[in-house]
């Protein structure tokens, strides 16, 4: 289908473009920018006046709950939510049921996602079998089946030798290992940041040291084994400092932060709001400020939604018993824009954090509007406010701390491979 | 309207009470006005009478609509109620519900031989079949007015009319 | 600012924690408790205030002591009492906490007294009860035990009426103690100028000073000149979690003996929420001694709970 997207503000961070110009799509690819390509006759014209036209977003972490927990959410519902959020490529962690540690499971997931044609799914394979932290998975086979990297999801490896060998093995092939840095014994049973709020509310705290220690050991092991490591979901000021220092020393590390940690702190727990039960926990104001600054100065490479739909019953429990996680695919854009506005970051730099930068981390061809690139495009109105309510969210998970609030940044159109997969 | 002099009424009250009182009678004042009156009456009645105070907050019949009174005070009945002749003292008699509550409370302390009631003023508007044995003044008042006994810093009593919230 | 414990007129709707309650409401409860204190001495130990109302004790975490005090308090108010020990019933069959509460609503309970092993349970329940139902937190995880905090300050007030001139020391496992947190909030709200906590570092929450207390690790230093000593219970499991080496060493360093008591003011009072571990937190001689007010605490507990229930029930 030949599509002419007219009058939009084209923003493509990879190619440094931020200008009002037209975009042309043909055969699922970007056919031209600015001038109409020769012989192009539009079959469809989309008027993008007042809209930003940018690459479809690349989300580094979105739990789709398939295979396994279909009562919570389905592939279809969550991919539709992704499209509604302008996300065209996403990566999902391996903590499904069963765990993504077999090539067959990965192939099945990719096949099902491909058939739906709503968003590109790049699963992360389990680093160890069943995520148990004992035996390695067949990383080469899993990569061939379509894994973009390897992860332990939320289960830290306790045996340091296993962690070492896993990174060493991954380094053999140049695979990226994604780890959420948290020392398991210090974090055991913890549900909140170990600070004043946890003291007042009587919640078991996870100290900053749990993340700092884990980052230090992971970086050290990565250095000695030569592995490429991606740290998922930074949450502490100290963590940001450690990564900044490591990058200065030339260590091969990238990291991301979730939309929730850029805007919320331990205080948002309020009167035990279970929607604020997250992993890692929401921390202090100082930590939040450091995350925002670290993202702005490039220490943190990308923002992800950390999408984790949880059904209502699992949140209607006392705080510690409630299942952690927040729905986020549809909030990736508005909360990225809000971070940019509050930290005086330009729109193009902000969009880079959810397009080009995560694409690099995933090692995929995405997040750009170069000619001949796949036509994965998002068109959004940065000034349009909308209410976050169970009705306006397409995800089956309505669990977010932002429920009932108003946010700015509404996706009007999403194209995947040149096909319209979402429109308002 | 001019209200009678409360101090004069107090003297009349003491006179009116004397026939009802023996050395074994127990006086019980109902908070707060009844207690004030009782404190002044005790020396006037001449005997060394056993006495106590009653706060009826927990026995009122309007708990459901008005909640617990903002200021409750402990009742003090430092004597045996069983077989006792008791004289209740209150300042203003209105619907009779306060006395009903007071009697219910007293019966949770024991079984008195008799209960008599002495009040300073009856302002009319009785809603229960209760009547004082001693009453020094009858001042009928409409529903939208309240009669209050006041005590100044020297302990002198006056009566005052106030608008009621109906 | 929204306060889940108060209704739109600022009156007490639920008692979930001492934190967040204004001084005036705390004083109202304490003053009202004065009037209930004498009821237990009378022939008919009842007042008719809650006649026709139902108080339901929902204990997701067992406690015969606390449940019994609430039951006595409710019965002295002439209320009907239902006891639900959820550990043995439907909860263990997988019924959620809110399902249990909803089923009880069908029985027209007016007051729920709730105890649960997780912090925030009472808040969760309060968010989901019918508008006319009141929730009293009888202890949620490590977070709060407001009626205990209230009866403790009520006890202090009876023996040391001038709260604005006191030094109070809490001794023991503050980290795991909801009683300690409630006591600290009550004391600071009522204007007690100096509140100390005395404990080893492993038994204190991080940032505890933010609660408005002074921290002591040396018990002898911490007890100097103190007017009130509030002992906290040490549970056996603390010895197995690498928090403490042994009960003996704990008693040596943090147990209250006659000798350490002598460092406080001569008329200092000794309190304990119970049940006591004699020889671990406190010496028998001190527990049974002349400065101990541990037994009166129990009586006051009934009066304070009667006050709380009456005020709540009257605020419908």
Quantity of strands of chain C, as a count:
9
Distance between the termini of chain C: 21 Å
Q: What overall geometry of chain A do the principal axes of the alpha carbons give?
A: globular
Overall mean pLDDT of chain A: 96
CATH fold field value of the largest domain in chain C:
Rossmann fold
Unreliable segments of 5+ consecutive residues of chain C: none
**Head-to-tail CA distance between termini of chain A:** 20 Å
As laid out across the biggest beta sheet of chain C, the strand order is 7-6-5-8-9
Tell me the name of the CATH class of chain A: Alpha Beta
Structural shape of chain C: globular
Write a structural description.
With 424 residues, chain A is of the alpha/beta class. Chain A has one domain (55-362): TIM Barrel (Alpha-Beta Barrel). Chain A is 31% helix and 22% strand. Chain A has 14 helices and 21 strands. Chain A has helices at residues 75-84, 103-116, 139-145, 160-173, 184-187, 196-201, 208-225, 237-248, 259-263, 285-296, 312-315, 332-342, 347-352, 356-362, and strands at 3-6, 9-12, 17-20, 23-26, 29-33, 44-47, 52-55, 57-59, 87-92, 120-123, 125-126, 150-151, 176-179, 192-193, 205-206, 228-231, 253-258, 302-304, 377-387, 406-416, 419-423. Chain A has a six-stranded mixed β-sheet. In chain A, strands 11-12-13-16-17-18 form a six-stranded parallel β-sheet, with helices on both faces. Chain A starts with a strand and ends with a strand. The mean pLDDT of chain A is 96. The mean pLDDT of chain B is 94. Chain B has a five-stranded parallel β-sheet with strand order 2-1-3-4-5, sandwiched between helices. Chain B has one domain (6-163): Rossmann fold. The two termini of chain C are 21 Å apart. Chain C folds into two domains: 23-144 and 298-314, Aspartate/ornithine carbamoyltransferase (Rossmann fold), CATH 3.40.50; 146-293, Aspartate/ornithine carbamoyltransferase (Rossmann fold, 3-Layer(aba) Sandwich), CATH 3.40.50. Chain C has eleven helices and nine strands. With 316 residues, chain C is α/β, with parallel strands linked by helices. Chain C is globular. Classes of the chains: A alpha/beta (424), B alpha/beta (166), C alpha/beta (316). At the B-C interface, helix 3 and helix 4 of B face helix 1 and helix 11 of C.
